[in-house]
Amino acid sequence: MNVASASGSSGPSGSVDLASPDTFLHGAPHEALTALRRTDPVHWQPMDGEPGFWAVLRHADVVRVARHAEIFSASEGGIVIEDPPPQTLARVRTMLAAMDPPRHSAHRGPLSEHFRPRAIARREERVRDICRAIMAEARERADVEFVHEVAAPLPTRVFGEFFGLPRQDWSYLQKLAERITSSQDPDFGGSGYGDDDAGAEMAAYAIEFAAARRQHDPVEDLTSAILRADFGGHPMSDFDFGGFFVQLVTAGNDTTKGMLSSGLLTLLRHPDQMAELRADPSLIARAVEEIVRYENPLHYFRRTALVDTVLADTRISAGDKVAMYYTSANRDETVFDNPQSFNIHRHPNPHLSFGMGAHFCLGAHLARLEGRLFFEELLATFARVELIGEPVRIRSNLNNSLKGLPVRLMTEIRQIRGV
Ligand code: HEM
């Protein structure tokens, strides 16, 4: 048994610092993670200025943590490794992802019907129209910064319609979402995780929006559905709506934007597989699943141990932080053949990028639909896509995303030959 614990001596030191956003600047440290999965799969990672955390690296152990909310709490310390100040933690706890049972199920129940496969499938035509409009706008420009000009508008517009938000507010909310999730990157103005001013600003927007909506007859959108639903015997307060809204908009925006832009970059780096998708678009759904495994938009989510426990022979004490590393679990060689290679034909593909258990991503079916339609429309519109500059990654220990992807989009092959 590995007797290392948070309160005792640290475990075998690894060569990688998973707490530092700089570690991920040039991509995930897959080599180090592969070595740790073998030698130290529940790895103690110290942090500057606050207690460190256990990095859970193997697929089976991530599943175990995710499935045992009675041992590993999402609410106790929130879902990121940096301990939030009390005021932020109070707001974070109004988010579904940071609730424990039974509160969690009481809040998730009324929402889940809007995100089930059948409900999401009904949105296909509308989401396709949005994708076509985005591609038509991109055609006008040809040279684009793909992350912000092509990928980001999809989740922004889908959410705007989902919630019935005024169109003029959509890009403002997208920028706030980006500030919240990218605040470890100096380009977005922050140094820690979760720009709290942006989070509070978005919650205030949502609270005002909910209050105004209550004055009107309900309409058929998610806002009205949430406001008239029963959450464990009472309606949702405007304050709670604020937290919910922030969670849905941030969770849905940046992850989806990440999936679309990392997906394109991965396909550009695997031109044979891109060609296969062009030749047979029915392969795109499976390819999206592989994109989400290979370039999972979130590196980890955190839990806090409520009791002393043992995980993979490692003693974990009550109060310790525990981070489920999807980035590592998705490349666990005991689960995936050739885990380091990108393979659009991979099946089955039990990746953990959408989490597992009670907190399994509420928006997974929506994200899959957006991914499939986006790539179908992208490949149908542009005969050729070419990288015209260096891709730039977000500085983050949580978000596995790009912030810059300069590409040239060409409708005809002959454009690249200069004919
Ligand atoms: C590729 C895109 C996405 C990825 C990779 C992703 C990933 C995740 C992961 C890993 C979790 C689990 C959290 C945990 O266990 O602590 C989660 C939860 C969640 N996601 Fe997503 N997500 C994506 C898109 C979306 C979208 C489009 C929405 C919009 C509705 C969304 C809403 C949520 C919500 C509300 C939760 C919390 C669920 C709960 O705690 O019950 N996500 N997501």
UniProtKB/TrEMBL annotation:
The entry lists its GO molecular-function terms as: cholest-4-en-3-one 26-monooxygenase activity; heme binding; iron ion binding; steroid hydroxylase activity
Q: In which residue ranges is the amino acid composition biased (Low complexity)?
A: 1-15
Chain residue ranges for the region called Disordered: 1-23
Checking SUPFAM superfamilies in the record gives: Cytochrome P450 (SSF48264)
Q: Which CDD domains match?
A: CYP142-like
Q: Which UniProt keywords apply?
A: Heme, Iron, Metal-binding, Monooxygenase, Oxidoreductase
Its required cofactor(s), as named, are: heme
The record's Gene Ontology biological-process terms are: cholesterol catabolic process
UniProt-listed PANTHER family: BIOTIN BIOSYNTHESIS CYTOCHROME P450 (PTHR46696:SF4), P450, PUTATIVE (EUROFUNG)-RELATED (PTHR46696)
Family classification: Belongs to the cytochrome P450 family.
What protein is this chain from? Cytochrome P450
Native source organism of the sequence: Mycobacterium spongiae
